[in-house]
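Section 4.2 – Deliverable D4.2 (structural model, holo form)

The reporting period included a commitment to supply a predicted holo structure for the target in complex with manganese (II) ion. Inputs used:
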Amino acid sequence: MKYNFWFIVGSQFLYGPEVVETVENRAKEMAAELSKYLPYPLVYKVTAKTNQEIADIVKQANYDDTCAGIVTWCHTFSPSKMWINGLANLQKPYCHFATQYNREIPNDEIDMDFMNLNQAAHGDREHGFIAARLRMPRKVIAGYWQDEAVHKRIGDWMRAAVGVAVSKTLKVMRFGDNMREVAVTEGDKVEVQTKLGWQVNTWAVGDLVKEMSAVSEAEIDALMAEYAEKYEIATDNIAAVRYQAKEEIAMKKMLDREGCRAFSNTFQDLYGMEQLPGLASQDLMAQGYGYGGEGDWKVSAMTAIMKAMGEGGNGASAFMEDYTYHLAAGEEYSLGAHMLEVCPSLAAVDAKPRIETHHLGIGMNEKDPARLVFEGKEGNAIVVSLVDMGGRLRLICQDIVCVKPIMPMPNLPVARVMWKAMPNLTDGVECWLTAGGAHHTVLSYDVSAEQMRDWAKMMDIEFVHITAETTVESLEKELFLNDLAWKLK
Ligand code: MN
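Output (structure tokens):
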């Protein structure tokens, strides 16, 4: 889907046709200029002067699948009772951009005509009031429209809004059920579909095995050539790699046929398969598909959404699991990995991920599964977990700083990422556990906590952010108040 955003500018008839025409021309100019710096086009739509114009443009926005959101601005004063009928029907993400055409107050030129034309300072206040009065979930961004920092903020919001569009049409394919007895990977699929739009359904592993048996050797040869291009084949067990290729091809066919952008499976249900998909799942993730292990369809869906929110529509976001800690005083780190399935979008750029085969003791693997092994890159990142609190969904986000792993761990047969959690390892763990965050997360280098906050706001779900400033005490208070507030909502 090629998404765009609509620029809707508020005005009124009071100032006469010349002013309205000037507003319209400037709005067109600004939308065109801004589009050069934004990840998605900002398309000028209307200088709205009546209730009908606003109601009409909102109706059009709601029904246009390519419109991922609206951006409003009031160049002049736009009495906002005329916005009520439109805004009350708005079903798309909404950003109020508070800016003005001129950067500076022109000392000599300024007179009452100038003031009447350039009065966003109070026009935007009228507009802000009505959205607040209507309790509209929206993003407010203030700043000069030619500033790079402003472009970055609008761009980030656009990506979060695209995450909303992706979420609302997302289909998740589950191969088998969740891992037996596990609580945190469970959830109310009806609630999730109502709130987030996800269509989560199950396909039998037998269907996948049937699809695999129909994959040709020529198809496998073609994918093996791609593997050889992207990865270093560091195993003699080529048969195991070819088996993963067969799994990948079959899964991709089923996903694409059903329009699914995310999938989950579990090592407890591999009936008829020789290997848990490792390399197969990793290479699918690299193409933008979401994945969750142990039947964790929530993390799978979140991975797909956050990938779509990232750079170029497929960013460095991946399914991750908190595995083990390094608790040396002053040098505390978390080590994240999974038994196989870590997306190579996290890999450090200086070395190609290696395809290796190793024994996997967990699950019913008849053969040693092939998987990509690599180190994660350095940089600021977040980990995100969506949990079902019973009656509502909670999105937990923690700031982390990824480092080059402090030791080579030569006998660890899986991809690994090492990080420092905020505010520090132990307080961070206490906060995470207090909030009920899962062991499975989406780790992202290019989606920010602010974007996840915006996304949660647009989806109308609870958002909890663990930062360098968070204390266990402050978080406990926040969670207590959240509980009360969400019961009233
Ligand atoms: Mn796991």
